[in-house]
Protein 1
Amino acid sequence: MTSSPLPTTASACGGTLASTPLEREEAVDLARTFKALADPSRVRLLSLVAAHEGGEACVCDITGPVGLSQATVSHHLKVLVEAGLLSREQRGTWAFYSVVPGALGRVARLLDGVEGPDVRP
């Protein structure tokens, strides 16, 4: 399994991006997470894994619903693992994926309180 590269300093202190500036390494890790989530296919795969029975899914379970080849799905899942959002466990010839506990919550906590100008009409 891959350890989560998500930033921990600000979240460990209860801070947010607006209250606790990130160190350079933390910013790089958070950018990797945002990059992983910037692709609609990866967001969908993350959702499919999270919603799958038992909270884990084999690549063979989620390839059909996204309409991509197995190789493309495997690539997207690898990116999500490297971003610390999914974990991967090999069982025989199949790899099973599950959402890393707390990974999405850490991102949400870091973003909490970050507000820009009100752009509503």
Protein 2
Amino acid sequence: MSAEGLPTKEQVLEALKVVKDPEIPVNVVDLGLVYEVEVHENGVVDVTMTLTAIGCPAQDLVKADAEMAVMRLPGVTGVNVEFVWTPPWTPARMTEEGKKMLRMFGFNV
């Protein structure tokens, strides 16, 4: 927790690791889908993220899961999840942990 009783960016990212892409068995953080996290003094957290494809039918599900995950953190009063498409997602944005998870499922990354 930060000095004001708000979560840090790192704590928000850790909370978001429970959110999985419905088509790829890896969380949105290790997939590299989370572009920015901003924690405001009033307890509102802004999350800027993308999906693996524009028009993904799971967008509403991922948004709801992300909002619920962050709202569980102490001091959070609201969550805004915004999807952006620039820059586009590529597998190069994945963490080493994400690539390791995908390799376990037989993906070549």
Protein 3
Amino acid sequence: MSDEQERETLIEFPCRFPIKVMGDSHPELMEAVESCVKEHVDDPDDAVIQQRASSGGRFVGITVTFTATSQLQLDRLYRALGQCNRVRMIL
């Protein structure tokens, strides 16, 4: 299957969709997440980005909630986030 093909999904679009990103506590992480959102979300101003530091302060959890329009959009955003150096996990 090509990266550009729409695949089947149980999600009904458009819908509000949260993505959780965990990574190193570093300003570069938030910059990378915001850059990915601007590139892959139709209305970046609609996205809500929340950040929470771990108890030890070494890691950060970022939740991005936005209006997803297709499975292809989600796939592209997950791929882009996964290529960021400071990202450790995406849910």
Protein 4
Amino acid sequence: MTVPDDVEALLAEHSDEVAALTRRARAVLLDGHPELRERVRRGWHSINYAHPDAGFVCALFPLAGHVQLVFERGVLLPDPERRLVGTGRTVRSLELSDATDADLEVVVEYLDQAIALGRRPARA
């Protein structure tokens, strides 16, 4: 999978390990849902993903030593194995420390749920 220049520019600021892990997570997201629109947000230092029907669903945040996969409405996602972390009012994230954390099945399961949640009509 080709990585756009703006993604590579963001990843150039990180260790080889974090850059590789971010590329792996990015590939998992886009392989799982090729219709996602990807946008680098330099101010947030993130790679954001929006779905055509569900809007903004998640973002990858490369950090020192790991990558956070942040879900916009993560507090509403089912999480029976308690893999999501965070204490904010809305977002939750998966902490990705190595390639096994960026497992296709796990990441896409959360992504599927986030997209389904975004497709639901808003309550009045």
